[in-house]
Amino acid sequence: MNCGGSARSDGECTLQSRPCQSVRSTYGVASMSVQEIEEQLATLTPSELERVEKLVRILRHVNEPGWKERVAKAHAEMDAGKKYYEADLQKVMGERRANAP
Length: 101
Prior knowledge:
This protein has 5 helices and 3 strands; from the N terminus they run E-E-E-H-H-H-H-H. The protein is mainly alpha-helical. It folds into 2 domains: about 1-45, no CATH class; about 45-100, no CATH class. A 3-stranded antiparallel β-sheet has the order 1-2-3, with no helix packed on it. Strand 2 (about 15) and strand 3 (about 20) form a beta hairpin. It is elongated and about 50 Å long.
């Protein structure tokens, strides 16, 4: 696997002395190197690329520090009776999209 680090015999690699998980070890599916992913991305249609871009944005968001805690807090608030209205959610989502890179 090529993740900018050094490959090991077990198919994993290290990046700055930190192990990188392969797709296989993370999701239990066939692993692909970053180079293989880049090659496959080059073959996608514009529609498929849009789907990949959306997935990458979602993954970046859910991997932000504190995301799980914010979601857990919101769920606890809703369980306690606090409700959110669709208009409020649309406003927040619009603000996030406007500030997205």
